[in-house]
Amino acid sequence: MTTMDLRVGNKYRIGRKIGSGSFGDIYLGTNIISGEEIAIKLESVKAKHPQLEYEARVYKSLAGGVGIPFVRWFGTECDYNAMVLDLLGPSLEDLFNFCNRKFSLKTVLLLADQLISRIEYIHAKSFIHRDIKPDNFLMGIGKRGNQVNVIDFGLAKKYRDPKTHFHIPYRENKNLTGTARYASINTHLGVEQSRRDDMESLGYVMLYFCRGSLPWQGLKAATKKQKYDRIMEKKMTTPTEVLCRGFPNEFAIYLNYTRSLRFDDKPDYSYLRKIFRDLFVREGFQYDYVFDWTVYKYQKNAQAIAQAQQKEPEKGEEGTNAAAAGTSKPTGTRNPAARQAPGVLLERCRPAWATHQSMTVRCTSVAVSTRAAAFARCVC
């Protein structure tokens, strides 16, 4: 039996594959009772190192937090472990590609505020994520289109006892866990990860968004270990002021602060949020949640409308001539919306100002995807 024939939890039908996580593939699913679309993560029961049940337990431990997807069901069907969870929008990596691989300072700061808060919540629940990267942050859909969500907890780990808050011991000679591009220097050095490493990784994510790339991308080596070593060397030898050159000093302050933390230190999340909020205000930005991709999508829609309008006079003249000749030749176009007044068209394409007081893209069935093409399904 293929995955396309499966139903899980008696009421969820599995559709097409829409992405992959660190462990398992993700499919678009449908609640056969309500018709609601959801995401289904599948893992073969024959997997050498099964992780989905553990990930479901982590989600359960984090349940209720802002930006934490809700797990509807977990169980085993046929030859698969399955986890049913909220359907979300495109990842920040998808949106980064959609915006030609550069985010404005405003968008980076809007994201930074939410991202710091998401990681703070995970840490407050005694977990570290250990794979902080753009692919693991997804925007919501509908009314929560401005909300950043965190996914993929297959590599997450408790860094302290939830009851006593006794911290895990310092260890060395650990293998690199996570994604080398965003890994902290201590992770490269084989040190056990803790809260400081998630925060340092987030610093690299923000600089990636600002710069368009990081200096240690694209390095070649004969083996994976040699490549990781080259990445580590480049990270360690690139001065903070060089890495952050051309951008506000707050990014260097953030990175230097996170790199200075001791193994069991609690990061000062409020301080880190504040330095970016103060920068946001100083730059004169508005907290309207108008992200780069919102503007870009709106501009593309407006351009398409303008092109459709240019063809309208020809259609109108054809219709007038037909009417004068006493014929009933249709005068419409293939796109009914193109027959409406320009003001109506722009208002229809305008994101929901009244509902959200900001330009929120409404995504129809855009799922937890690792493909930038998924965002093309978003419509205003």
Keywords:
two-stranded antiparallel ribbon; alpha+beta; 380 residues; six-stranded antiparallel β-sheet; 12 helices; 39% helix; Phosphorylase Kinase, domain 1; disordered C terminus; Transferase(Phosphotransferase), domain 1
Cα-atom radius of gyration: 24 Å
Which structural category fits the helices and strands?
alpha+beta
CATH topology of the domain at 90-293: Transferase(Phosphotransferase), domain 1
Give the biggest sheet: 6 strands, antiparallel
**Strands side by side in the biggest sheet:** 1-2-3-4-6-5
How would you classify the quaternary structure?
Answer: single chain
Task: Give the uncertain stretches in residue-range form.
Answer: 320-380
Mean pLDDT: 85
Name the CATH architecture of the domain at 90-293.
Answer: Orthogonal Bundle
What is the terminal separation in angstroms? 38 Å
Number of E strands: 12
Tally of helical runs: 12
Q: What is the general shape?
A: globular
CATH class of the domain at 90-293: Mainly Alpha
Query: In which range does the helix fraction lie?
Result: 25-40%
Topology (elements, then pairings):
Blueprint: E1 7-8, E2 12-20, E3 25-31, E4 37-44, H1 52-62, E5 71-77, E6 80-85, H2 92-98, H3 105-124, E7 127-128, E8 137-139, E9 148-150, E10 157-158, H4 185-188, H5 195-211, H6 224-237, H7 240-243, H8 249-260, H9 269-282, H10 292-324, H11 342-349, H12 353-356, E11 362-363, E12 378-379
Helix pairs in contact: 3-5, 3-9, 5-8, 10-11
